[in-house]
Amino acid sequence: MPEITGLQNFAPILLALTSATLFAVSILVLHQGLRHTDSETGSLIQIGATVLCYWLFAPWLVESWFWFTPAAALFALVGLFKPFLSANASLLSVHYLGPTPTSTLAATSPLFAAAFGVFFLGEYLTLPIALGTMAIMAGSIVLAQQGGWGRRTSWPLWALSLPLAAALIRAAGDAMTKFAMIDLPSPYFAGLVSFTVSLIIAMLVYGARRRALPKLGRIHGTGWFILAGVINGVSVYCLNTALKLGEVIVVIPLVSASPFLTLLLSVFLVRRETITRNSLLAVLLVVPGVTMIALSR
After folding, report:
1. What backbone torsions phi and psi does residue 159 show, to the nearest 5 degrees?
2. What are phi and psi of 126, to 5 degrees?
3. What percent of the chain has pLDDT over 70?
4. What DSSP string runs through 169-235?
5. pLDDT per residue as tens digits for the range 179-204
6. Helix, strand, or coil here: 148?
7. pLDDT value of position 104
8. What ranges do the domains of the chain cover?
9. Cα–Cα distance between 49 and 240 in angstroms, integer?
């Protein structure tokens, strides 16, 4: 029994790290696709591929009564603002602030997640989890600083709220998903509903801007976006399962280590990045941070 309990406690950590790794892989795959078309079109195809994967297995994993629960409405609400609002806030932030300040301020997402976990879900924030969370956030900020802040040093004051809003929305979405799964503990259904709603919104916005939805056969790099969508779908399922089994204050900081994993894959797998002083410092921050959170359970 102690062995089983230990494995159950460790399962959310493994799932969170798996989700972070898969998300890092999907980012690299997306990068390949973006060589051929714009990010808005690629994002639409990626979300569509994710939704298709979820619906393919829905007949075996989703029961009809799921749709008539309060949790279904909450999952749909999550899909209204994540990733749609969070992604658009990030894009506007990059426009006004640049990529480095955006990435730096976006690293505050685990802090918001901890607040939601403690104040709304009744989770208990221990010292190791707090220190580990801060270490991962610091490592993400260090990685973001590799490009420097650029020449522009002043922005509209309101623009500073954009990346913070994106981080807040992501954390709120994860916390709401966790809360909804208390009523309906189905990570698969959570992903199905939220991504389906996100796809509908993305198609409406895309159609309003472009007046015609993309035809896959005419878009170069379509295969990369479809592959990224499939990988992202598995990543979200792992994330939702981790949230079902574990706590927001544990899962979200671990998933937030994804930029660090992306760097490692870029250095050692695709050989697009090189080791720098900031990279080494990030390693010294993120690895102990993840270890502290894992051992705290």
Report:
1. -65, -25
2. -85, 165
3. 81
4. HHHHHHHHHHHHHHHS--HHHHHHHHHHHHHHHHHHHHHHHHSSPPPGGGSTTHHHHHHHHHHHHHH
5. 999 999 999 999 999 999 999 998 88
6. coil
7. 72
8. 17-295
9. 18
